[in-house]
Amino acid sequence: YKQKIEGGSPKEPMISSNLELDKIDFSTVTLNETASFDFAITNDGTSDLRIESIDEVDPDNAFALETAVSLPLVIKPDSSLELSVSFSPVETGKTYQGTLTIKSNAKNMPSLDISLVGVGGKLSAVELDDRGTGSRISISCNPNPVSSQSVISVKLESDNIQHIKLYLIDNSGR
Questions:
Q1: Which among 114, 111, 62, 61 is positioned nearest to 89, based on CA atoms?
Q2: C-alpha 53: how far from its chain's center?
């Protein structure tokens, strides 16, 4: 899918993205996991497109531009810049929203705003591995989402751990 935005003279830089409605929807990503999404910004004009800035507005710091870019940068006519954005939720059930703004000399859209959205999904298992001691703890909960019939299983593989404390906390922190 490629969205062209009309306007400007054909002898000027013109920006477009391969995103539908200039939106990246990560859907649901498991808590403490990271999902990445690659997309392209294209110069559809006949002169150089100069990217002046790429800014993130993300109050929760859940999204990140993964592609290292040195600004300002130039995209030649009929060329593209591949970018990657990641999403790492830290709260279950929360909907995260942000914006990636690309400012350029494009005559059709000097400021391209890309909406970012994603939801923090529930953990179904946790594994901790202390590589220094060989200790390993596996915790799983099934079915997920949790119900009154869910079973929490804990498996401890270690000769060094004397005791372990487990806390069960619901979505509201209780």
A1: 62
A2: 19
User: How far is 95 from 89, CA to CA, in rounded Å?
Assistant: 9
User: Mind listing the pLDDT tens digit for each residue in 38-81?
Assistant: 999 999 999 999 999 999 999 999 999 999 999 999 999 999 99
Torsion of CA 100, 101, 104, 108, to 10 degrees: 110
| Cα separation, 114 vs 84, whole angstroms | 12
pTM exceeds 0.70, yes or no? no
Dihedral sign (CA 137, 143, 146, 151): negative
